[in-house]
Design goal:
11 helices; three-stranded mixed sheet; 10 strands; 44% helix; single chain
Amino acid sequence: MADRPQAAPVPQAPAVPAAVRPAGAAGSVTVREYGTRYLRISVRYHGDARFSWLRVPGPAHDRPQTAPSPAAGAALRRVDAAVADAASGAGSGAGEGSGAGRGARLALGERAAASESGERGGVVYRVPGAVSVARLLPSGDDTAYRLSVRALADLGRTLRQLHDVPWEFAEPVPPHHGVGRLLAWISGTAPDGDGARLRALAHDRLGARLWTRLTDWAVAAQEPPGRGGAVLLHGAPSTGWLVPSPAGDHSVLLTGEEVTGGDPALDLGWVLGELHELRSAAARGLGAAGQGPPVDYPAAAQALLAGYLRKEDAAAVVEALPAGTARAATLRLAVHMRDFASFVGWHEDLRNYADLLAETLDADGAPTLRW
């Protein structure tokens, strides 16, 4: 944006927007509930800035919610300890885009008790906030935006910490669930009505050449990495899994259900693809992003990249990103489009999203890296 505001340090205790601060209540109280046919999320407040996020499978959920293997879980806890150590020595003077300092803490999920989740089970996460960056970033609230940008820088640092860990565990690498859903949709084996309708539309809008490109990229993403081997991946990092503390002192990343190993480009591209989709939707007047207040998505993406690359400034560093990041970001765009049709339902805006996917594929994913 031509009038992009300059990033400024977040104070240690900023005024907390109303969207983040629930009204006080005695004992535990549910403050938010939302979801799709794939997953339902319930956020409860337990007092003293303590929240729990319960994720329960919906009727269209196609697999058990599984915890990481013991070895991968131990590695995640080591990464979280390293993040905590870095934060304790970082001080509070770093700005949103700083490459030095803290990262997002890993909130590892645990199996929910039957009293919490009912018959369908579920996974519960203990976190310091009620609202994720997915809601805060486009809210139009200046403090919420600054919390979000700083949280994205934290996320970048933590993803880099994860990717420094090679997948050298005895168990095989689990499949990447997002890519798996995309492949099932591409092949027509996913049993979903509106998803099938979108598949026919996307096949028509993309044409044979780009449909083949999408298929090839998705197949390659599920194959074991070549040179350098697989590293520890979050598996589905997103703004919806990233929860800042209302005090602005730290962020947490819900982690566990999607953990896998593979190419680091998959994790980084997953977040960049989401930000690219939001920026494009806002520019085209699509969905909530197109109807909401202006958002400086480039600054948000640059904070993520600066954190990941351990730099003060993310400008002109695209060549330093993992090879394949643009392709992974494009796959994320396709997965989200597919998930919306399958788990929320049909919306006419999906025609425009199919065109956006075609344009991004035709450019080899390059628009996802232009920040």
